[in-house]
Design goal:
heterodimer, A: 587 residues, alpha/beta, 6-stranded parallel sheet, 22 strands, 36% helix, B: 165 residues, alpha+beta, Alpha-Beta Plaits, 4-stranded antiparallel sheet, 4 helices, 9 strands, 41% strand
Chain lengths: 587, 165
C-alpha cells in the first residue's frame, strides 16, 4: 500500500531518497512545516547557520569538495533573498545545488503578504532551473527532477519554491518516489562527436607549440585522471584557470600554474606563443583572455565543453567538441593510442617548446622558496608557502576573494582536484569560512584551511558561532593587511594611489579576541620569523579538534604580480611594482 | 554581417517559461524586435516566435542560450531556410472626403481589409511579412495614422519540414 504523507514529510523523505545527508538552512514561518518534518526524522542532519548566505556557501563548499549536490533550506522573503548571493556564486561556477525556499500559502501569493517575495523571479537569472510546488503529491517528482537537473550536464543551482499550504501536516497524499523522471526538453550532451575527437587528436599530434588550458569543468567533470594521462602521454604543458587548479598536480614540471590576469609568466607566454590550445572545461573568461582581439594570435583552438553555449562565445573554436569532458578525454586517449605509432609526436619541436617554456619559468616564474627576513613584514606569499609546507600540500584550502585568494592560487600548488575551493566567477567575499564549513561537514577528519583576508572574513564571521555548535575545527589563516587589498592595489596602479574607501585600519577589531569570544582559539603573528612556528601550532595535534584563527599581519603594501595590462594580450604583464625586483618579491 | 533572424521556439506550456526566455534577452543584452507566443495543437507545448538582428555569431549564441533553458524543446532560425512569415497589423486611420477612396485603394494594393468604419476613420487589417506591413505604413503617408497595433512575426518552414518533428 502506498504510504500517505504530508507535503512537509514528503519533501524530507524525497531528500532522503536522493541520498541527502546534510541540509544547511535557517527556519522561518513559511518553512516551519518542513522544519517540523526534519525534527521528526534522524537520517538528515540540519545545520543551523547564522545567515542564509552562509548556508548557500556551505552547501556550495560541500558540493565542490564531494561532487555531490549541496542542499539548502530557507524560509520565504528575506530568507530567500539572503540566499541569492550564494545561489549566484554557485551558478557562476557551475556547482550542483538544490535550494528549497519556503513561500507564503498559495492563496496569499501576489497580495504582498508578510515575508512574501517572488523567489522564482528574483532567482531566475542565477539558477539553472526552478520549480514551484502547486500540490503536495507533486513534491517527489519535483525533487527528483531538481536533483537530476542540478547534477547533470553543466551543473548548477536549482530552486524549489514551496508554498506553505503544500506542506500542511493536516493534508496527506500518497508518496511515490519516481525512480525515473522524464524531462523531454532536457537532453545534455554526453559523448563528443567521434570525427571531431579524431580531428582534435590529429591537431594535437601535429602541433609544435601545444598547451592545455584546463578549467573548472575538468574538476567538476571528474576528468582529472584523463587529463593527466593525456598530458603525460604527449608531454603537453598544462596551465589551469583559477577554477581548474588541482586538475593537474601543481608541483609537476609539466604544470605551468595558473594563467590569466594573475597567472604565471610562463603560463601566459606559453598561451600567447602557442600554435594549438586544447581548452578543456574552460570558458575563456575575461580574466583569462585579457583583450579577446589580441588573444593568442597563432593558436588554433580545440574547445571541449559540455555547454554548447560556452563554445565560440568569446573566442571562436576551430575544433569544437560538445560533450562530457571525461568521456571526450577518454576517447581522445584511445585515439592517441591508435594513432601514436604511425604518427609520432615531433620530439624535436616538443623539446624546443619545453626549452622555451622553461626559459620563461627560470626568467620570471614565481619564487616558491621565499625566506623570511628578521625585522621585515610578513609577505603574504610566504604565508601561503608556509601553509603549504605545514599542511604538506594536502589540505582543503577554501579562500575568500581578493589578494589573499590570488596568493593562495599562485603559491599553494594543489596536488589534487577538489582541494581548492573558491568563488571564481562571481568573486564573492564572505565565501571562504562557510565554504570551509561545508567541506569540514563532508570530511570531518580532513584538514580544512580557510585562507582569507580581514575584509572578506568580516562578511560572514558570524558563522564562527555555527562552527562552535557543530564542532567544526577549521583552521583560518587571515592575511591581515588592514585594507581591502585588491581594491587598494587597483587604486595604487590606476588611480594615482587614491585609496577611496579601501582602508579602515583605525577601526579593525582584534581578531584573536573575536575568535576567543566565539569560543575558539585565536592567535596572532606579525613577525615573519615566527610564522612557521605559529602555523605548526595551529595544525598541531593539540589543537586538532579546535577551530583556530591565526591573524597574520602581512606587508600592507604588497601587490599581486604578475598582473595583466588592461586591454593587452596575454603576454602583456606587469611583473613588479616600478622600481622593485621582479614579482614584487625578492629572495 | 548583420541580418534578421526569425527564431521559432517550441517550449513547455508552463507558468514562468516565457519570463525565462524574455529574461535571457535582457540579461545577456540581446535585442528582441518582436515576440509572439501561443499554445500549439499539443496543449502541453507553446510556440514562440521572436525576431532579432545580429551577426551570425550573435544569432548562434542566442540559439544556444535558448536551448540551455530547461523548458525549451526545440529552436530553429526560420530565416536560414525557405519559410513563410506572417504578421497581423491593425491600423486606425483618419479617413474623410477624398482620402476615403485613396485609403481603400492603398489597402486593396496591400490586400488589406477595412474591418471597421466610422464617418471619420477606417480600421485596416493587413497580413503579411513584417516588411510588407512596414511598407503599407509608409504608403499611408501624412498624419493620417491614428493608431497601429502589430502582432509581431510568426513563421513556419516551407515544405514537409516541421519544428520538433
Amino acid at each position: 500500500m502506498t504510504e500517505r504523507l504530508s507535503g512537509g514529510d514528503m519533501l524530507i523523505r524525497a531528500l532522503q531518497d536522493e541520498g541527502v545527508e546534510v541540509v544547511f538552512g535557517y527556519p522561518g514561518g513559511a518553512a516551519l512545516h518542513i522544519y517540523d518534518a526534519i525534527f521528526r526524522q534522524q537520517r538528515i542532519e540540519h545545520i543551523l547557520v547564522r545567515h542564509e548566505q552562509a548556508a548557500t556557501h556551505m552547501a556550495d563548499g560541500y558540493a565542490r569538495a564531494t561532487g555531490k549536490p549541496g542542499v539548502v533550506l530557507v524560509t520565504s522573503g528575506p530568507g530567500a533573498t539572503n540566499a541569492i548571493t550564494g545561489i549566484a556564486t554557485a551558478h557562476m561556477d557551475s556547482i550542483p545545488m538544490v535550494v528549497i525556499s519556503g513561500q507564503v500559502p498559495q492563496d496569499l501569493i501576489g497580495t504582498d503578504a508578510f515575508q512574501e517575495t517572488d523567489m522564482i523571479g528574483v532567482s531566475r537569472p542565477v539558477v539553472k532551473h526552478s520549480f514551484v510546488v502547486k500540490k503536495a503529491e507533486d513534491i517527489p517528482a519535483i525533487v527528483r527532477k531538481a536533483f537530476l537537473i542540478a547534477t547533470t550536464g553543466r551543473p548548477g543551482p536549482v530552486v524549489i519554491d514551496v508554498p506553505k499550504d503544500t506542506t500542511d501536516p493536516g493534508v496527506l497524499a500518497p508518496y511515490v518516489y519516481p525512480e525515473k523522471v522524464t524531462l523531454r526538453a532536457y537532453n545534455p550532451a554526453v559523448r563528443g562527436n567521434a570525427r571531431q575527437i579524431r580531428k582534435a587528436v590529429e591537431a594535437l599530434l601535429q602541433a609544435r607549440r601545444p598547451v592545455i588550458y584546463a578549467g573548472g569543468g575538468v574538476v567538476q567533470g571528474n576528468a582529472s585522471a584523463e587529463l593527466r594521462e593525456l598530458a603525460r602521454r604527449l608531454r603537453l604543458p598544462v596551465t589551469m584557470t583559477l577554477m581548474g587548479l588541482g586538475a593537474y598536480p601543481g608541483e609537476d614540471p609539466q604544470s605551468l600554474g595558473m594563467l590569466g590576469m594573475h597567472g604565471t609568466y610562463e603560463a601566459n607566454l606559453a598561451m600567447h606563443e602557442s600554435d594549438l590550445i586544447l581548452a578543456v572545461g574552460a570558458r575563456f573568461d575575461d580574466r583569462v583572455t585579457n583583450n579577446p582581439k589580441k588573444f593568442c594570435p597563432d593558436a588554433r583552438i580545440i574547445h571541449i565543453d559540455i555547454d554548447p553555449s560556452s563554445i565560440s562565445k568569446i573566442i571562436p573554436a576551430h575544433i569544437p567538441i560538445v560533450g562530457d569532458v571525461r568521456n571526450v578525454l577518454g576517447e581522445m586517449l584511445q585515439v592517441v593510442d591508435a594513432e601514436l605509432p604511425a604518427n609520432p609526436v615531433n620530439e624535436r619541436a616538443r623539446e624546443l617548446w619545453w626549452h622555451q617554456i622553461d626559459g620563461w619559468r627560470a626568467e620570471n616564474g614565481l619564487n616558491h622558496h621565499l625566506t623570511p627576513k628578521p625585522g621585515r613584514p610578513i609577505l603574504p606569499q610566504y604565508a601561503v608557502q608556509m601553509l603549504h609546507k605545514v599542511t604538506r600540500g594536502e589540505a582543503y584550502v577554501c579562500s575568500d576573494v581578493g589578494q589573499h585568494q590570488m596568493f593562495a592560487a599562485q603559491y599553494y600548488r594543489f596536488a589534487e582536484p577538489r582541494r581548492w575551493i573558491n568563488s571564481g566567477g562571481l568573486g564573492t567575499m564572505g565565501f571562504g569560512l562557510p565554504a570551509a564549513m561545508g567541506v569540514q561537514m563532508a570530511f570531518p577528519d580532513a584538514t580544512v584551511a580557510c585562507v582569507t583576508g580581514e575584509g572578506s572574513f568580516m562578511m560572514n564571521m558570524q558563522e564562527l558561532s555555527t562552527c562552535l555548535q557543530y564542532g567544526l575545527p577549521i583552521k583560518i589563516m587571515a592575511l591581515n593587511n588592514q585594507a581591502l587589498g585588491m581594491v587598494k592595489q587597483w587604486q595604487d596602479m590606476q588611480y594615482g594611489g587614491r585609496h577611496a574607501s579601501s582602508t579602515y585600519s583605525d577601526s579593525l577589531p582584534d581578531f584573536k579576541t573575536i575568535a576567543e569570544a566565539f569560543g575558539h582559539v585565536g592567535m596572532r603573528v606579525d613577525d615573519a620569523m615566527q610564522l612557521e612556528g605559529a602555523l605548526e601550532e595551529v595544525f598541531s595535534p593539540a589543537l586538532r579538534n579546535k577551530l583556530v584563527l591565526l591573524d597574520v599581519w602581512v606587508d600592507r603594501e604588497e601587490h599581486v604580480y604578475p598582473m595583466a595590462i588592461r586591454g593587452g594580450s596575454m603576454k602583456d604583464l606587469v611583473l613588479a611594482r616600478a622600481g622593485e625586483g621582479k614579482g614584487g618579491v625578492e629572495d | 554581417m548583420q541580418r534578421r533572424a526569425i527564431i521559432a521556439v517550441l517550449l513547455e506550456n508552463e507558468a514562468g517559461v516565457l519570463s525565462r526566455v524574455v529574461g535571457l534577452f535582457s540579461q545577456r543584452g540581446y535585442n528582441i524586435e518582436s515576440l509572439t507566443v501561443a499554445p500549439t495543437e499539443d496543449e502541453t507545448l507553446s510556440r514562440l516566435t521572436l525576431t532579432t538582428v545580429g551577426d551570425e555569431a550573435h544569432i548562434e549564441q542566442v540559439i544556444k542560450h535558448l536551448y540551455k533553458i530547461v523548458d525549451v524543446f526545440k529552436v530553429q532560425d526560420l530565416a536560414e531556410n525557405e519559410h513563410i512569415e506572417r504578421e497581423l497589423m491593425l491600423v486606425k486611420v483618419r479617413a474623410v472626403g477624398a482620402e476615403r477612396e485613396e485609403i481603400k485603394r492603398t489597402a486593396d494594393i496591400f490586400r488589406g481589409q477595412i474591418v471597421d468604419v466610422t464617418p471619420e476613420t477606417y480600421t485596416v487589417q493587413v497580413v503579411g511579412p513584417t516588411d510588407k506591413l512596414s511598407a503599407f505604413l509608409r504608403a499611408l503617408s501624412g498624419g493620417r495614422i491614428l493608431e497601429v497595433v502589430r502582432s509581431g512575426a510568426s513563421g513556419i518552414s516551407r515544405g514537409a519540414r516541421v519544428l520538433g518533428g
